[in-house]
Amino acid sequence: MVDREALRQQLMDERGRLNQEIAELDADLSESLEDSTEESPYDQHMAETAAATLDREIELTIQESARAALAQIDRALARLDSGGYGRCEKCGKPIGAARLEVAPFATLCVDCKRAEERQF
After folding, report:
1. Which of 14, 25, 44, 113 could make an SS bond with 63 (beta carbons 3.0 to 4.6 A apart)?
2. Which pTM does this prediction carry?
3. Where are the alpha helices (DSSP H) in 83-103?
């Protein structure tokens, strides 16, 4: 049986960590490209500008992933409250304990997740 309070705490802890990561990324991304390199873009070599732009794209991708993970955690918390936690959203079968231990925000059982991944 799943210890719902321990699970809720684990999800809330991860939610807090993700919120902090998103806030830090927001702060980093709020700087303009010019400010982050501390030079005018006209004074930079093209490679320096490209590197700064790549770094910014990486931060945006990390931020997007963190926001997606946060949404998954919020869904898991809602399912925990509604009583649907631990059941596959597609087939209704229980999601294995090992899968939930690794990914406590999982909404699909292993079989349905595999089938979903094959479609892409």
Report:
1. 25
2. 0.76
3. 97-102
